[in-house]
């Protein structure tokens, strides 16, 4: 018998899935649950979009070549 | 047979590991440091300290293993040491661990941001929202969502159990979304649901 759908559980599960914390069978179960509920599917799509957006838009800085050289020199001196 | 103890690596081998495996992580390491202290000079000091320590203990690094996670762990420890020195108090992590599933469920039901909000936000607003989070939550998001570390790696870097990583991330993401929602409201967006 198919277990009843619980949106709150599915939200928790698809977050674990997006984090790579589920095995393939568990992932398949989550995908089935997402197909059963349009609300959960919308939440899942939103979560995916949020994570992609975070990665793309967060401001990243890099170290200068001068700092890298200083770093290498410091190590050589030790 | 030529057996070289890992404790007695030649300078040439140490330098090779340092330049080929550790130095390429400098940008990511600097970004992590900056997100902890928000000052360029202090972030550079932390990065330098982490690299010096890494070089000193390079014999304990397995070439080809996860250099990035190793360096992040060293830097995080350097940050905690710096914090302890400044505050002269042991670092306290007071954030509640949301181990109770019912609490997780309560959090889960609060997620509700329309997709258009994301599209119209710029990097500075996102970074501002992230930087406004308490340090433990900020670190959880940076390590997992931005740097792509696994739960296991985040647990090792942060020195917390995996269950705490899960719960902290869940709470951190919801706090982050709350911050983004506030930014969106300030910009005149309306809740879509």
What's the domain count of chain A? 1
- Helix fraction bin of chain A: over 70%
Distance between the terminal alpha carbons of chain A, to the nearest Å?
67 Å
CATH fold name of the largest domain in chain B: Arc Repressor Mutant, subunit A
Can you summarize the main beta sheet of chain A? none
CATH-level-2 architecture of the largest domain in chain B? Orthogonal Bundle
Oligomer: heterodimer
Structural class of chain B: mainly alpha
How big a fraction of the residues of chain B is strand?
under 5%
Structural class based on helices, strands and sheet pairing of chain A? mainly alpha
Can you tell me the number of structural domains of chain B?
Answer: 2
- Most extensive interface, residues per chain? A-B, 34 and 43 residues
**Number of helical regions of chain A:** 4
3D structure, described in words:
The complex is a heterodimer of chains A (78) and B (193). With 78 residues, chain A is mainly alpha-helical. In chain A, 74% of the residues lie in helices and 0% in strands. The longest helix of chain A is centred in the middle third of the chain and has 20 residues, at 38-57. The radius of gyration of chain A is 21 Å and the shape is elongated. Chain B is mainly α and 193 residues long. Chain B has 2 domains: 9-87, Orthogonal Bundle (Rna Polymerase Sigma Factor, Chain: A); 101-186, Arc Repressor Mutant, subunit A (Orthogonal Bundle), CATH 1.10.10.10. Chain B is 67% helix and 0% strand. Chains A and B meet through helix 1, helix 3 and helix 4 of A and helix 2, helix 3, helix 5, helix 7 and helix 8 of B.
């Amino acid at each position: 018998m198919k277990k009843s759908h619980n949106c709150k559980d599915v939200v928790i599960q698809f977050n674990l899935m997006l984090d790579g914390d589920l095995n393939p069978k568990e992932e398949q179960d989550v995908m089935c649950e997402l197909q059963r509920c349009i609300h959960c599917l919308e939440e899942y799509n939103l979560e995916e979009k949020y994570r992609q957006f975070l990665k793309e838009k967060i401001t990243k800085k890099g170290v200068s070549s001068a700092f890298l050289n200083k770093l290498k020199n410091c190590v050589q001196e030790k | 047979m030529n057996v070289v103890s890992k404790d007695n690596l030649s300078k040439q081998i140490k330098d090779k590991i340092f330049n080929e495996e550790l130095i390429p992580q400098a940008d990511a390491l600097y970004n992590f440091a900056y997100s902890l202290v928000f000052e360029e000079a202090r972030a550079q000091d932390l990065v330098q300290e982490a690299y010096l320590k890494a070089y000193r203990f390079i014999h304990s690094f397995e070439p080809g293993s996860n250099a990035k996670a190793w360096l992040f762990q060293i830097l995080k420890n350097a940050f905690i040491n710096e914090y302890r020195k400044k505050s002269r108090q042991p670092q306290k992590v007071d954030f509640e661990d949301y181990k109770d599933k019912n609490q997780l469920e309560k959090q889960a039901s609060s997620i509700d941001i329309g997709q258009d909000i994301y599209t119209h936000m710029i990097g500075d607003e996102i970074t501002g929202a992230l930087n406004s989070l308490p340090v433990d939550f900020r670190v959880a998001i940076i390590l997992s969502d931005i740097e792509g570390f696994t739960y296991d790696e985040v647990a090792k870097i942060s020195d917390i159990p995996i269950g705490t990583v899960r719960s902290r991330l869940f709470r951190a993401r919801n706090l982050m979304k709350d911050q983004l929602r506030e930014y969106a409201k300030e910009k005149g967006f309306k809740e879509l649901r």
